Amino acid sequence: MFKVKMIVSGRVQGVGFRYFVIISARELGILGRVWNNDDGTVGILAQTDDSQKLEEFTALIRGEKSSKGRLSPFAKVTYVESSPTSFPDFTDFNIKY
Fold it and tell me: Which terminal residue of the chain, N or C, has fewer Cβ atoms less than 10 Å from its own Cβ?
């Protein structure tokens, strides 16, 4: 199982970015959570058995790969910090409030 924690910086709160993350994750079969941080960043926990799907998901988050127009034109990712981590397994992908 491949598990990462991402912190996404830029204009990513209040612009539909978390919903873009959910749609992208679900289409790729990625499990995990996404949430807003108090400092204006967005946090993501993502897990999958397929490292290629995780790379594709990360590329979508960074804006390096086409997202079929789902990303709000108001969102702008400027930096993604991604690191391997450990957390209990998820069974879906949703927003953490």
Answer: C
